[in-house]
Design a protein that fits this description.
alpha+beta, 2 domains
Length: 178
């Protein structure tokens, strides 16, 4: 539970939820409110990475909010509760420096974690990359054997080659990392 005295500018002292920007509040921006050692939890749709409220609904214009926790354990506990109650969501936890760097932690429900990070995600990206790479080769070789008369094979093949390379590099890097 967050005490009101620890965060005097937080509108909801029971939950720690605060609007990211509120011009009627002093300070207006959430980064000016967060204390050193505190953490902000942002709720996102796991698939699209779109910001969401704790129930998974999109924010209306100007209503974006985050939960400010007094310490990392409280932020992680809150994030776990959110993703457990709605596996389609994920939470990113940032420290008092804000979103200028990578999140301190990204929390997914264990049932969907492999869809978004980890070795399963890396293998899937590598497989997709290899398939696109092979399909690109088929298009390019077919068009090259016909003296580039079809031309679309070469154009589509190059696009597939680029996209496949991105998936392949991302997947390979993820497999090495994990």
């Amino acid at each position: 539970m967050i005490r009101c005295s620890a965060f005097p500018h937080v509108p909801d002292p029971q939950t720690g939820w605060t609007k990211l920007y509120d011009e009627s509040r002093t300070p207006a921006h959430w980064l000016d409110m967060i204390r050193p050692g505190a953490y902000a939890v942002f709720v996102l749709q796991a698939d699209s990475r779109a910001p969401a409220d704790r129930d998974g609904n999109d924010f209306r214009l100007g209503e974006a909010s985050a939960m400010i926790a007094p310490h990392l354990a409280a932020a992680q506990d809150f994030a776990e509760k959110i993703v457990t109650s709605n596996p389609k969501l994920c939470c990113e936890i940032y420290d008092d420096h804000g979103k200028s760097g990578p999140p301190v932690a990204t929390v997914y429900d264990s049932s969907v974690r492999g869809h978004h990070e980890g070795i399963e995600y890396a293998r899937r990206n590598t497989t997709i990359g290899l398939l696109l790479f092979a399909l690109a080769a088929v298009f390019i070789v077919y068009d090259a054997r016909h003296d580039l008369a079809w031309l679309w094979g070469y154009i589509v093949g190059l696009k597939l080659l680029i996209i496949g390379s991105v998936f392949l590099v991302r997947g390979t890097a993820g497999m090495i990392e994990n």
